[in-house]
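Ticket #462: bound-state structure for glutamic acid.
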Amino acid sequence: MKSRFAPSPTGYLHIGGARTALFAWLWAKKNNSKFVLRIEDTDRERSTQDSVDAILEGMDWLGLNYDEGPIFQSKRIDRYNEVISDLLSHGKAYYCDCSIERLEEMRETLIAIGEKPKYDGCCRKKYLKKGVIRFLNPDLGAVSFNDYVKGQIEISNSELDDLIIARSDGSPTYNLTVVVDDHDMKIECVIRGDDHINNTPKQINLYEALDWSTPKFAHVPMILGSDGSRLSKRHGALNLLSYRDKGFLPKALLNYIVRLGWSHGDQEIFSIDDMIKLFELKNINNSPASFNQEKLEWINQSYIKTTGIEELVDNLKWHLNQLSINLSNGPDINEVVESLRERSKSLVDMAQSCVMFYNDFEDFELGQASKVFNLESKLILDDLYLQLKILEDWNAENIHSVINNICEIRGVGFGKVGQPFRLALSGDGKAGSIDISAYFVGKKRTISRLKMAIEWINNLDS
Ligand code: GLU
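RESOLUTION: The complex was predicted; output attached.
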């Protein structure tokens, strides 16, 4: 038994595609089956290598590992041609040379009289040797199937077109290749977006013409934006990898998208094991799900708080690299992450908070410095410099005592010491708890940054 995810590499892997992939992957895991990744790249004009790379990177980032693949349809053209020849030789397919103008006219006439546009079968009996190749759809009877999500569906054959299975240059089309592959790859359950639901009856007729058994189907409703309209860039990023770039944990995203159209009671947080255990195709909702950015952010923050430290650091490393942070140049990252996880909104936020612990800066942010650094704060910075320089046991508690001590002696509040100290340490004033920050920055760096701040003020005088 197998399921598959079969994206066309004609754009980035979007959030809806990722959810289809997750459902198909969960089905495979749940049923102890194999999961196949198939790249449907027979449309050579629209398929790009960048898109293939984005699909593979996206699957890898999400951890949706596949047992077979990636299988590229472009490498299987001989097999499709073999099936097309077979259909032609058995009179189940035929060449058609109708002009685009004729097809267009026919279409418009049918629409004008309120009928469904459909090819009239004009070339069925012409026995041509070139043109596009059409499948000879049965005229009588009906196609029926029981979709896991949509329920029982029945379509009369009189409503179905003779679909094009090869273009005039001989290249096979999606409806043919998908049937051949799902058959050859022994796909038991086809899970895909419901934008394909109209193709399914035609594909079922192809299975029957080829004397192949038909897989089961689950057509997953689309995802809408929070305002009920079709999900678009306006509602946030559609590109899956941009969620990585924005600091989401892959498991948080998986948790969020599994709930888009699928539920198990009121449960919101699902580990991968929970998902595998509880996932049922029949529980997929038949109406479209709405995307809710705040909920996704809430789930992400809750994962940041609870994910095991190793996994969290592993995911953070990608972001640290983006900021050129070299971990050998500062404190133990595990300790840092433990202290940041409670207040980090995303991995990007967390990585940005790490910068001051590992990277030195050349100067202070001018706007901040001209506000905070002055002769009054210089006195405080001098105190900090002198007292911290002789502090032996460098830990947050002792640093805190030094600050308290200065507050007492100078008769000032914590903020009066904290503000210049924070700017001296971070360069831009963006730092969390000051004693913990100084602890992670380390003694040597703290002293040299205090010195740099004092010099900055001294230079004001001259
Ligand atoms: N390649 C198709 C698409 O990206 C999916 C086909 C299918 O799953 O059957 O929309």
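RESOLUTION NOTES: The chain has three domains: 1-71+221-302, 80-166, 309-461.
TICKET STATUS: resolved
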